[in-house]
TrEMBL record:
Gene source species: Paenibacillus cisolokensis
Gene3D superfamilies from the UniProt entry: MetI-like
Annotated transmembrane regions: 33-53, 62-83, 105-127
Family listed: Belongs to the binding-protein-dependent transport system permease family.
Alphabetical list of Pfam families matching this protein: BPD_transp_1
Residue ranges occupied by any ABC transmembrane type-1 domain in the UniProt entry: 1-206
Keyword annotations from UniProtKB, A to Z: Cell membrane, Membrane, Transmembrane, Transmembrane helix, Transport
Protein name (Swiss-Prot/TrEMBL): ABC transmembrane type-1 domain-containing protein
């Protein structure tokens, strides 16, 4: 749920922002762009961020996974670069026909920017799927809001603690007993496979869009 909802909301909102700052007639486009780019290099820090999340009432809430990362600045730049590469005549024709900005965005811009949206969707989905630290910070006391990555992290941490607490005699006995020993390394390898399978299954369907979106975005950037 976190990956699906978070990806859909983030990509849609980021695309709306990218379309806004790509418009030449928007007088604040440079200021807004620089304001967002500034956040890529400087942040308030962990403690102010936690205090902000607490004041917003997002602790022990599902929406703490969605709202803080609703806009990705790098993703916005990728989509904006793609939109700027679209023929101006298409957007001007829509405006002449009486379409507003939102109608133009929904009916024209979004269908034409599918490669960029697919690329950004993959970025966001992987980030949402792999994230566990925000679960630890904000929802660790609520088992209903836990995620797979956080549970796997706890298992690995428990195995590391158990391995470190074993004495040399215990390790020698387990090695001589003829039974397989579960080590933190084997658990880490298993976790990697479990966590990677869903993304590996999705990637083949997005590969052609991913390559095209990265190529066009990179050339325009």
């Amino acid at each position: 749920m976190r990956t699906v909802v978070g990806t859909a909301v983030s990509v849609f909102c980021t695309a709306m922002l990218a379309y806004t700052v790509s418009r030449q007639d928007y007088v604040l486009r440079k200021f807004v762009t620089m304001a967002f780019v500034f956040t890529m290099y400087f942040s308030g820090g962990l403690i102010p961020g936690y205090l902000l999340i607490r004041e917003l009432g997002l602790i022990n809430s599902f929406w703490v996974y969605i709202f803080p990362g609703i806009i990705g600045v790098f993703n916005m730049i990728v989509i904006r670069s793609f939109i700027e590469g679209l023929p101006d005549g298409i957007l001007e024709s829509a405006k002449i026909d009486g379409a507003g900005d939102f109608t133009t965005f929904i009916r024209i811009v979004l269908p034409l920017t599918v490669p960029a949206l697919a690329t950004v969707s993959l970025f966001v989905a992987v980030a949402q799927w792999n994230s566990w630290f925000d679960v630890f910070l904000y929802n660790s006391s609520n088992i209903n809001l836990s995620t797979l990555q956080y549970e796997l992290m706890k298992i690995l941490q428990t195995s590391n603690t158990a391995a470190n607490s074993m004495t040399a005699a215990d390790q020698f006995a387990s090695g001589q007993g003829g039974t397989a020993t579960v080590t933190p390394t084997s658990i880490r390898a298993t976790m990697t496979i479990i966590a990677s399978v869903p993304i590996i299954m999705v990637y083949p369907f997005l590969q052609k869009y991913f390559v095209k979106g990265m190529t066009v975005g990179g050339v325009k950037g």
